[in-house]
UniProtKB/TrEMBL annotation:
It comes from the Bacteria. InterPro entries: SAM-dependent_MTases_sf. This is FkbM family methyltransferase. It comes from Neoroseomonas soli.
């Protein structure tokens, strides 16, 4: 064990020498310089956290980006605070499969981890549109995009994605911020569950034109999101979709998979960061929870 740690420290020092200690390299440069174990170690080596009085915690993610998270979050935040990344196998997959100048949607952006990642990958020549209907998370998202100087690349909307336009829908809210905070009155608590109101839009009506990439990060509403993007799929033949699928949380998982399989080969992102073929039956019985890659374009 000590020998392996010594080797890893040596690898980190070599990476530091290659990309610098003070201002870490871009994600593309990191992927060029080392393997997954080296990159994860380098990112963890640069983690830092600062608790703030407004109920948020400031941390450093992916080695160089600043991010405000919810201090009460027991899901994503611990990984960001201690490791500096989230679902690295998905992060690495995205780094291989997005290009400069592309247009990407981040649906259910939460803090904006993927919004920031997408913005870094598409660059100033590209565009990212982030949707987050939760008012508290939307505020943190806006702070994260602003503090990293990405306001010119990322457009943020407090909208829920649905099958059609709605003036107001009730959105489940796991994270609500401090009860004494400025957003406390947005949330309603019934039977221990919180919801908040938000306008909704069908993705096919959000903007004109085609889209290169869509991340759907809300498994519980995936049915409604997909139902509202048929027109977007039609006018974006080269679109790639990354979707969080949970057979236990979808309203009609078999119907959702049938709709998707009629358009795209079904693939899931495995722990080695490779998109692998799967069937609807496997997703409904053996796997149940997966990150799906949906596109006519072969993944890298």
């Amino acid at each position: 064990m000590r020998g392996e740690l010594a080797v890893l420290r040596a690898e980190i020092e070599a990476m530091h020498a290659a990309v610098g200690r003070r201002d870490i390299a871009t994600l593309e440069e990191l992927l060029r310089e080392g393997n997954r174990r080296q990159i994860e170690a380098l990112i963890r080596d640069r983690t830092q956290t600062v608790p703030l009085p407004d109920g948020s915690v400031l941390c450093r993610v992916l080695g160089r980006f600043k991010m405000f998270t919810d201090a009460n979050d027991g899901g994503m935040a611990p990984h960001l605070l201690l490791d500096g990344y989230w679902e690295y196998w998905v992060t690495e997959f995205l780094c291989r499969n997005l290009a400069r100048g592309e247009t990407a949607y981040d649906i259910g952006a939460i803090y904006g981890y993927y919004s920031i990642l997408l913005a870094d990958l598409v660059g100033s020549e590209g565009r990212v549109v982030a949707l987050e209907p939760n008012s508290w998370l939307n505020w943190l998202l806006r702070r994260n995009i602003s503090v990293n100087g990405l306001g010119g690349t990322v457009a943020i909307h407090r909208l829920a994605a649905a099958e059609a336009k709605h003036d107001s829908v009730r959105v489940p809210a796991i994270l609500t911020g401090p009860f004494t905070g400025p957003f406390a009155n947005w949330f309603t608590f019934e039977e221990g569950r919180a919801t908040c109101p938000a306008p909704a839009v069908a993705l096919q009506d959000l903007e004109a034109g085609s889209v290169d990439f869509v991340r759907i990060g809300i498994a519980s509403a995936a049915d409604r999101v997909v139902a509202g993007m048929a027109g977007l799929m039609d006018r974006s033949p080269g679109m790639r979709i990354l979707m969080e699928f949970d057979a236990n949380r979808c309203q009609e998982a078999p119907a959702l998979l049938a709709t998707l399989a009629a358009r795209y080969p079904l693939r899931f992102i495995d722990g080695d960061s490779i998109a692998k073929p799967c069937t609807a039956e496997e997703l409904l019985t053996q796997r149940r929870v997966a990150t799906l890659y949906l596109s006519r374009i072969e993944p890298r």
